Amino acid sequence: MTALNLHPSITPDLSLPCHPLKLQSSFLPMLRMSKGCHVDFPFGKNRCMSVRSLQKHGFRRKVTLPDEDMPRQWYNIIPDLPKPPPPPLNPRSLQPLCPDDLLPLFPRALIEQEVSLQTYIDIPEDVLDVYSSWRPTPLFRAKRLEEHLKTPARIYYKYEGFSPAGSHKSNTAVPQAWYNAQDGVKKLTTETGAGQWGSAIAFACSHFGIGCEVWQVRASYDQKPYRKIMMETWGAKVHPSPSNVTLAGRSILEKDPSSPGSLGIAVSEAVEAALADKETKYSLGSLLNHVLLHQTIIGEECVKQLAIIDETPDVIVGCTGGGSNFSGLAFPFIREKLKGKLNPVIRAVEPAACPSLTKGVYAYDFGDTAGITPLMKMHTLGHDFVPDPIHAGGLRYHGMAPLVSHLYELGFMEAISIPQIECFEAAIQFARLEGIIPAPEPTHALAAVIREAQHCRETGEEKVILMALCGHGHFDLSAYERYLAGQMVDLEYPEEKVAKALSSIPVVA
């Protein structure tokens, strides 16, 4: 049912009687507002309730924010934590990394954000201006999915697919490109899995007039050719990874000419290329603190949107590969949890074939395969681990963001893993009921949400479930083709491969 939206300037005082008002549109029957501002819906019995009640109980399918209510600050969770996260280490000295050590890779402004102890950081006006082309993003209620599942739970999803690149990745690509442009950087190098991040940074670099070179994981490069074309349309140069362009890539190809690649390998190649040119910097789409910081605009908007409809989340779900979209939604709610304002279960969902949180070890490890990056304490499967080529290419990373790993160790969140066939079953169900074809990555969150909703059906609990739907799957249709043709298989957790990779992680006392 479509809700009646009243312009703020004509919202009546519900304590006073009001004159009858008839409203007519091309898609709704005539509605009559009478004393007490009730709305009579001529759809059958028990369909009459106040405007306030309509909002409170979620009969509105979409909750939006006015442009002027878009958050103007990012939220930094680190100062609010009871214990600071372990620092990154210099891989040679094994001592805490000095911020200046990162200057060959990042502009100073982003390094300052990486180590900042400010709770809120202002979003530059130029960045807000670009954000405003798609933000604030809507919060939807999945009413048709609820009805299909016959669950008393109320399911909401924060949808990030309206950005130019089609995912949440633009939330950090835009500020990263802007800060680099301000620093006089001529080109950015980066890696990408499924291509969501590569597309986002290519768009952002084009917007601010700097070059972009992308190493895309070979498995996704082959599966998703239109992502490559999208990046090239925005002016990026795209290589399959491992490639013959870098020493790191050539060394992998010598060992395995048919390597499907991994995000760890692609990181090595992009970092190597950045270090070779003084006018080039490196850009990362997940993992680091400043990347997670930029994504918190998602959760900050969502806190406001749920307040509009007087809802409080009981369960918050997001998929995790490196951790950026999950953090963007969850961190502002963890802040509210720390203040004692709410107490949701916060659940990360990862692929069964690459389960860094649920089966990885919490240890210092490299963020890349070649061992070029600083050592970060995180949940890892070993930097040498090359995950099987699942269709959720953005989740094929050996480690989890250090900050997410730290929160997991502190007990602020939980994690589960789900195989890909169950995820695509959930995606097909969602697409046919709600209309949006999700990217393969958030199908993991969808599968977990459906599990939770079915549990509520069994227990009768009226939980409010909130999910991060981080992007659309319009360029991932080859994965859907394989699923619909019955050709998709579940790839198991390769214990022997992981054990071998874990044996090579650095020993840090």
From TrEMBL:
It comes from Ceratopteris richardii (Triangle waterfern). This is tryptophan synthase. Keywords: Amino-acid biosynthesis, Aromatic amino acid biosynthesis, Lyase, Pyridoxal phosphate, Tryptophan biosynthesis. Residues 134-471 form the Tryptophan synthase beta chain-like PALP domain. Tetramer of two alpha and two beta chains. One of its GO terms (cellular component) is cytoplasm. It comes from the Eukaryota. Its cofactor is pyridoxal 5'-phosphate. Pathway: Amino-acid biosynthesis; L-tryptophan biosynthesis; L-tryptophan from chorismate: step 5/5. Signal peptide: none annotated. Belongs to the TrpB family. One of its GO terms (molecular function) is pyridoxal phosphate binding. Its EC number is 4.2.1.20. The keyword Lyase applies. It catalyses: (1S,2R)-1-C-(indol-3-yl)glycerol 3-phosphate + L-serine = D-glyceraldehyde 3-phosphate + L-tryptophan + H2O. The beta subunit is responsible for the synthesis of L-tryptophan from indole and L-serine. NCBIfam families: PRK12391.1, trpB_rel.
